[in-house]
Fold these 4 entries.
Entry 1:
Amino acid sequence: MVVNKRIILLMFLAAIGIGSLLAYRNYTQTNRSVSTLGQLALEEQNAWRAIESLGISKDNCYKKAQKIEIVLRNEESPTVDKTLSENTRAIVNEVLRVCGINPETISLIVINDAPCAAGANNDSIAINPTLFESLPIHAQKFVIAHEAQHIIHKDSLVKDIIMEEVKDKSLDYTSIDCPVNQLSRFFENRADILAALLGKDYAKGYQDRAELWVKNNKSNPGTTHPKHETRLALAQEIYSAMQTA
C-alpha cells in the first residue's frame, strides 16, 4: 500500500501534538498534587508549632501513641456489627485495602444516632447506616478513605494524648486560633486530601460530599474542621486536576 509522504508527515506531527498535550496534562496534574501536598506540609508545620508552644512535643506524642496502639491491639480483638449491611461492609473492606489497611484489623461499629456518616478512632470505624447509605457511592468511598487516613496517622490517639496534656491549661476551645483546633483542622484537611488523591473516584466523592456539606449542614465557623466552603473549593480543584490527567 502506497501512502502519501505528506499524509505521513501530518500523522507524525499530530502524534507529537497529542503526546505533548498528554505530557502537559500529566505535568499539570503532578504539579497541582505537589503544590497541594506542599501546602499541607506547611499547615502541618504551623499546627505543630502551635501545639509545641504549649510545651507538648510532637515526637513524644507519636511515641506515646505507638505504645498505646500496641497495648490496645493486644487487649482487644476486632469485631464487626452484623446489622451493618453486606454492601456497606463490602465498600468499607474495599476502601481499607486500597488504603493499605487489613480490614480484619478494624472493628466496624453501628451508631444509629451519630451526627455524621462515619467516624474513626485508632482501630475502629463507626458508621451511621442511614446517613452513610444515603450518600452517593463515590462519596461513601471517600468518607471511608478519609476515616482510614485518621487510622493510619493515629489522629485519634494523638488528640487524646494532647487533650490529657492540656487539661490543666487554660485554653479557649471556641477560638479558631486555639492550638488544639489548629491541629484538628490539619488532621481533617490531611485526611480529605490524601483520601481524594487516591484516584478519580475518590476525588469525585470528595466533591460530592463537600457539596452536601454546603447544601445540608448549618454554617461551619471552621473551628475544629475546615469550613464547608473551603473544603468544597479544594475538592473542586483536586477533582478538576484529576479530570485533566
Note: The longest helix spans residues 5-52.
Entry 2:
Amino acid sequence: MNIQSLAAMTTGPDGVVKMVVDNEDDARMVLNHAGLEFTEHRVVRASLDDQPGALADLADALAGTGVNIEAVYLIPSDDDRLHFALAVDDPDTAERHMG
C-alpha cells in the first residue's frame, strides 16, 4: 500500500490524520490491526492543467451542480497536469460532471 497524500493536525490533545491510499483494503487491514479508529470517505479524482485558476474552475463547476467539496488532496502529478483527490458530499454527481 502506498500513501498518495497525507495531512496530520492536532486539536487540543487529539490528533487527526487524513490520507489517500492506493489500496483501501490494505489500509483498512493495517488500521484495524493497529487498533486505530478511522472513518472512510470515497474520493473522486481530477486531473487538471497546471495553470492558475484550474482548481477554482473545477470548484465552481461542482458548486453549480450542488456538490460541496469537503477536502482536497494533491496526489502524485506529472509535468503538465496536477492530480487531485476530492472528498465531496455527492461523489456520484461529481463524477458525472467531471467527465
Note: The radius of gyration is 15 Å.
Entry 3:
Amino acid sequence: MDPRSYNAREIRNGDLTAEHLSAIFAETRLDLESEIRTFQRLKGLHVDGCAGPKTRAAIDKTQTARRCYPLRCLQDGRKPVETSAYKTRNPSRPTHCGSDFFYRYHDDDPDVPALYHITKRGKRRWWYPTDVAIVAAAAGEVTIAGETGTGHRVWVDHRDGTRTGYFHCRSLLVAKGSEVELGDPIAMPGASPKGGKVHLHFEWSPSGYYQPRDPLVWLAGASFLAG
C-alpha cells in the first residue's frame, strides 16, 4: 500500500496518534512518510514509510524511556526554564539548534556576578546559580567530551538512535567513554567565549550524524529531578 494512504488510514482509525506524530517529526510538520523512514532507519526497522505495528511499538518504547530535564530543580522547587527556543519556534534566531535554560530569579536569591544573571528593564529576571551542575537527561555513553569554540561540550549516546548534547560548559565531570545514568552530574555550566551569560544550551540529534531537532519534543513527558 502507498505509505501516505496507509498512514492516513492509521490516523483515522486512531492507531497512529498525535503522541506518535510528535515523537516522529524532526522539524515542524515535514513530510510524514519521510520522517517515518528516518525513524525506522534509526531504529533498525524495515524502512517503508508506513507506521505499522512494529514501528508504532518502537515509537511507544521511545516515548516511555526514562528521561529528565538536563538541570535539576532548585532547593525551593523552581524548575529550569527554556528562555531561548529551538529555531523553528524562534524566528529571531534561525540558526539556533537547541534550547537555552536558566532559572527564574527571585529577589531574595544570593548575589552573583553579572555573568550569571539576565536583567530586563533594570530588574534581574533570569539567573544561573554558580553551584548547579548539568545532569544527563537519560542513561547512555559519553561519546564526546571536550573543548569547542563555544566552551566545553558533552554528547551522550542513549543507544536508541538518539543522543543529547550539553554546551557552553566551563568544566567537565565526565570523559569520553564514561557510562552515565539518568540524573548523573556531567558538567558545570559556563558562558560561550563568543558572548552571552552562563546557561545551558541543550541539543538533541540522531546518533549517527548531526541533525539537531527540537529538544522539547524529546523532553515531552520528561521528569524534573529534585535538587
Note: The mean pLDDT is 89.
Entry 4:
Amino acid sequence: MTDDSPDRVVPEITCRQVTESTSAYLDERLDDASTSRMALHLATCAGCEAYATQIASVRQLLGGLPGPTAEPANLERLRRAFSLQQKRPPPAI
C-alpha cells in the first residue's frame, strides 16, 4: 500500500494531546499527519470536539475586541523606563 492510500491507518492521539495541540490546529500550524490525526479524533470524540469549538469561539470573540490603548503620558513614562533599563550594565552572573 502507498502512503496516499485511502485505507492508510492514521495513528490515534489522546484527548490530552488534542488539548495541547488545539491552538496549533486552529492556526493551521500542524503537519499533514498531525492535522489528520486531530481531525479524526475530533470527528469521533464529542468531548474534544466541544473543547475545540469552545476554544475557536473564544478566540473569535477575543479577536473582535478592540486593542488596548495607552495614555500618552504612560507611553512616555514607559519609554523612559525602557531607555534607562537598556543603559544599565548586565547583572553579574
Note: Residues 46-63 form the longest helix (18 residues).
